[in-house]
């Protein structure tokens, strides 16, 4: 039985919660191929002092090296609309489908993904909105740093 997008999002949400519990930014992702979760990741910029470990890039790193044929069947599931860097990683590896938990608190590269032929599904998930809304209210400076704003 193939899991639904909402069921797959639960893996990314769990990763986002883990990241927040570690003192980081609550954004998580899961890489799914043929209905199976291959890897999860979460934003670890704070925890590791990394400028590039967003949820999606951490997830891709956790998946390890994969052949193009695997990426071509993949879905990236993410709790938040992907930033330009993560959008680029999705395009670089030819991931044809992205499921986004929410895009109210941040609207990333969705239009660009669509223009490049990627299927983009936005679930507008209340839990994802709550995680980000609470985080942004509690730590606006850290959030602005994460999205490259002053």
TrEMBL record:
Which first-to-last residue range defines the signal peptide? none
Against InterPro entries, the record matches this protein to: CMP_dCMP_dom, Cytidine_deaminase-like
User: Boundaries of each CMP/dCMP-type deaminase domain copy?
Assistant: 3-120
Database matches in SUPFAM superfamilies: Cytidine deaminase-like
- In Swiss-Prot or TrEMBL terms, this protein is called Nucleoside deaminase
């Amino acid at each position: 039985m193939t899991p639904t997008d909402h069921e797959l999002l639960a893996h990314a949400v769990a990763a986002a919660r883990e990241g927040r519990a570690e003192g980081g930014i609550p954004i998580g992702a899961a890489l799914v191929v043929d209905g199976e979760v291959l890897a999860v990741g979460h934003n670890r910029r704070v925890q590791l002092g990394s400028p590039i470990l967003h949820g999606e890039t951490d997830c891709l790193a956790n998946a390890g090296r994969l052949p193009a044929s695997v990426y071509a069947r993949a879905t990236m599931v993410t709790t938040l609309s992907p930033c330009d860097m993560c959008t680029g990683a999705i395009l670089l590896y030819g991931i044809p489908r992205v499921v986004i938990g929410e895009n109210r608190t941040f609207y990333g590269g969705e239009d660009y993904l669509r223009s490049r032929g990627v299927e983009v599904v936005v679930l507008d998930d209340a839990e994802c909105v709550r995680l980000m809304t609470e985080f942004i209210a509690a730590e606006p400076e850290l959030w602005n740093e994460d999205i490259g704003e002053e």
